[in-house]
Amino acid sequence: MGVKISRSMLTMYKQITIKTLHNQGEKKSQIARELGCHRNTVSNIVKRDGIIEKQTRDRSSVFDPYKQKISEYLDKKISRLRIFELLGEEYGVMSTYINLCKYVQNQFPKRIEAYGVQITEPGEVAEIDFGYLGMLPGYLGRPIKTYGLAVILPYSKLDFYAICYDQKLETLVKELKAAFDYFGGVPRRLKVDNMKTAILRNQHYDLEFNQDFLEFASHYNTVVLPCSPYSPEQKGTVEAGIKYLQSNFVAGRQFQDDADIKRQLRNWMDGYANLRIHGTTRKVPKEVFEMAEKDQLQPLPQEEFAFFNRCVRIVLPNCHIHFENNYYSVPSILVGKEVTVRFNDHLLRIIHQGEQAALHHKVTGSIGNFVTERCHLPDYKVYSQTEYQAKYEARMAEIGEYAHQYFTMLLTTKQSYWFRSVRIILGLEKEYGQEALNLSLKRALYYQVVDIIIIKNILEKRLYLLEVEPILEKVSGDYAMSRTLDYYEGAPS
């Protein structure tokens, strides 16, 4: 037999090899030639009863006197580079950063904790995690940061993968829905690896979940389980899945664009990833899934999950919030308070301290609308349509006869939007006074002006002092309302 031994191999290995070859009946001279040793060396080793272990020199290091100090620095989570700087600044230690790194590695090796394998029941859990894949062609075929999402059933090892271009909650929810559709059911638990998308904080059992993600999980009747920080036994499967996706799908492939990536990914999942003999179980994941796990999954919900976006608003003094150029009522008790607005394309949910305060249909296609529930307003602010109109007519009549007549013109010309102009006019009263405003409205009446900007221009340039020959109906001089509430009784509400 022939055995080639490198000079760099350990002496202990050579000793064992020599003794083994001698016991097999090889001559000492032949062993010496094969191992590149002197014949006398072979004889000496054969004569020995045991093996002499290789002795290493006890080399001292310039860092030895500061070993305790280095340990303290490491306990304080100070970086190696900063430790190197501190040793030089405070103690005058002369060496190199590389030597310090080697010293720390030798003297303070990282402790490797042993852990057992977690056994899961069929249909019990799915492990979920994002992982960066590099720059891949996006929607337009241009390279873009790309992430892989792995959803793995640990029992059968059935994998679902998705290619994503962000790690937003909307993306996570979308791809999880696709994963559940792929499985044909929902596991009872979702184990997530502390991804910020789903878990905002996970420190020492102080958990803060993304509320939208919890609602998604609730809709699918599953429970979210975060992995404990620094617990490799709880997330090994899904982390291995991301590495598997990177090395077995992404590596060595050419992609044209997003559509091409997704097409190739689905073919790879169906034709290879889930049909291979798994390295751990030595079984085909798809077969195990079909035989033992598929029927144990929970059924998919009948209704589609409606994803709501989120923003924050302050309730205005008029008991409304301003959202996308329209106004939505909120109970008056929340005036001045911060509320959370949950919205999609159709609905608007207003939440305070975890409870729904209001629900409105979202207004689209127009701006400046007030969507008001009468029950949200305090009693003293609740007006019928007729009372609301009469209130503003009285205020305009207080300014003067021309202001009162201008109010009448607005009712006929602007109809549904008259109150916006009236509110602006009442605001001008504070700045310019009743007399100037009343005369300005006299001029506006003469020229049939309804543009508030022109009225402001009349006030600013004092054009109301110019003579006009208004063609106006004579009104009573007491500026009383020309219409009472009785007049408005027949008005539409």
Brief rundown of the structure:
It contains 17 helices and 14 strands. With 493 residues, it is of the alpha+beta class.
Question: Would you write up a description of this structure?
Answer:
The chain has a five-stranded mixed β-sheet with strand order 3-2-1-4-7, sandwiched between helices. The chain has a four-stranded antiparallel β-sheet with strand order 8-11-12-13, with no helix packed on it. The chain is built from 17 helices and 14 strands. The chain is elongated, with a radius of gyration of 40 Å. Residues about 1-10, about 55, about 470-485 and about 485-493 have low confidence and may be disordered. The protein starts with 10 loop residues before the first helix and ends in a 5-residue tail after the last helix. The protein has about 500 residues and is of the alpha+beta class. It has four domains: about 65-105; about 125-295, Ribonuclease H-like superfamily/Ribonuclease H (Nucleotidyltransferase, domain 5); about 310-380, no CATH class; about 385-490, no CATH class. It has helices spanning about 10-25, 30-35, 40-45, 65-75, 80-90, 95-105, 170-185, 210-220, 235-250, 260-275, 285-295, 385-400, 400-415, 420-430, 435-445, 450-460, 485-490; strands spanning about 125-135, 145-155, 160-165, 190, 200-205, 205-210, 225, 310-315, 320-325, 325-330, 340-345, 345-350, 355-360, 370.
